[in-house]
Amino acid sequence: MAFVLFLVFIALIMVRVPVSMAIGAAVLLAFAISPFSDALYVVPQQILEGVNKPSLAAVPFFIMAGNLMNAVGITDRIFTFADALVGHFKAGLAQVNVLSSMIFAGVSGAAVADCAGLGAIEIKAMRERGYKPEFAAAITVCSAVIGPLIPPSIGLVIYAFLAQQSVERMFLAGVVPGVLVGVTLMACNRILATRHDFPTQARAPLKMVLRTAVDGIFALVAPAIIVGSILTGWVTATEAGVLACLYAIALGVFVYRTLTFARLWTALTETMLMTSVIMIIIGFSIAMGWLLAIDQIPQKLGETIFALTDDKNVFLGLVLIFVLLVGTVVEGVPAKLLLVPMLLPVVDSYGVDRVHFGLIIQLSLLMGIATPPMGIGLYIMVEVGKVRFEKVSLAVLPFLIPLMLALLLITYVPDLVLWLPNLVLGPDVSIISK
Which of 68, 129, 385, 427 has its CA 20 to 30 A from that of 167? Predict the structure, then answer.
């Protein structure tokens, strides 16, 4: 049954069937040949039970917050501030690209929003100043990986739901890895600048830096408001998503006065469409997990891996290879929904912290958006940057090296992930008790 489930799912993905439909068709077919085929009503029950979770209510609000931030023009102000701050560096606009993504990460929490929102501004500016379109597209899609690491993050909310971890701890755990990815990408830009004649620009006067900071101050403090309200206990993760939406609307109506009814309607419709797809995938994934549990796939997987090695570091290396390969053909959210319930029992048996594992799988799957042949970020760049897919696929390869370096550091130096949540929230008592 499990073999048919994965075979049908992968086959449908390879022929470009939408993930939400592919996973649903695979579940229904596997269920039809199972011993429970006469009880098909179990599938809708599992789907409804899967999405009827209070913790998932945060997802649509954070999606909407990101769309609203784009609608009110916060992306332009973030880019202008980053340009004034680091635009004079070697490979200036490439560094601006990364820094903008690090700042915008604290607003949207979604790589796709970064690619589509900031990407259009960044690529246009880089092309106008003489950068090759494929290089601009490549650094844009790779810097977008930072978005779902630095809080708030939709992917980390979903992982917290799957792994039964607190959203606060997952958010804090993503800060250092997100900054680490940004620093490694900026270092890569600096190295490339020694080999290529990138355009340069004059250092912005301090007055301009201060002016752009003041102009974008409301955008820059948004992450602190969102995350700070959660950590202080004033609001839950879901309420923080609502707060982020209200904050974005207030900026658009009273401060920047850029939020029109048409833009609001566009943000709402995009939020509804994206939320619907994610919830459909979650529902079918819960049903798939139920089928895998019946077949005892997690237990069999654990026994197989234990037969290969009992060393935790070797296990983590095998997980990296496996998840990276999955990420090249399956998008992050459905891949996480498929893999996490299956791998968590094995992760626990090796004594790997669940929060640490969450950041490993998060970054591993995020690299898939920039990895040919299925990387969704690459296809977005083709549309946004008007560049051929083959060119951006080749241009992105050097940037996969710093991403891989950051992933290895996160994997084998767990304190990079756990230091901040342990410092702010204290050590996880459940881990100590084990």
Answer: 68
Asked if 182 contacts 101 with a C-beta cutoff of 8 angstroms, the reply is: yes
Q: DSSP string of 379-419? A: HHHHHHHT--HHHHHHHTHHHHHHHHHHHHHHHH-THHHHH
Count Cβ atoms below 10 Å from residue 209 Cβ, excluding itself: 15
Confidence label for 301 from pLDDT (cuts 50, 70 and 90): low
Q: First CA to last CA across the chain, in angstroms?
A: 34
- Per-residue pLDDT at 434 exceeds 60: no
**Residue 280, in any domain of the structure:** no
* In-domain check, residue 282: no
> Do residues 105 and 150 touch, judged by C-beta distance below 8 A?
yes
Using alpha carbons, list the distances in angstroms from residue 20 to 105, 281, 333, 368. 26, 5, 11, 18
Q: What is the DSSP string of 110-169?
A: -HHHIIIIIHHHHHHHHHHTT--HHHHHHHHHHHGGGTTTSSS-HHHHHHHHHHT--HHH
Determine, yes or no, domain membership for 21. no
Average pLDDT over residues 361-387: 80
CB-CB contact of 324 with 142 (8 Å): no
Report the interhelical angle of 237-250 vs 58-71 (nearest 10°): 20
Q: Is residue 16 part of a domain?
A: no
φ, ψ of residue 253 in degrees (nearest 5): -90, -45
Determine contact, residues 366/148, Cβ cutoff 8 Å.
yes
Can you give the residue range of the structural domain that contains 113?
47-271+295-433
DSSP state of 89: S
CA–CA dist 270, 60 (Å, integer): 10
> DSSP class of residue 236?
-
Nearest to 34 by CA among 3, 10, 13, 11: 3
**Residue 361: pLDDT above 50?**
yes
pTM over cut 0.70: yes
Total domain count for the chain? 1
Q: What is the mean pLDDT of residues 127-146?
A: 88
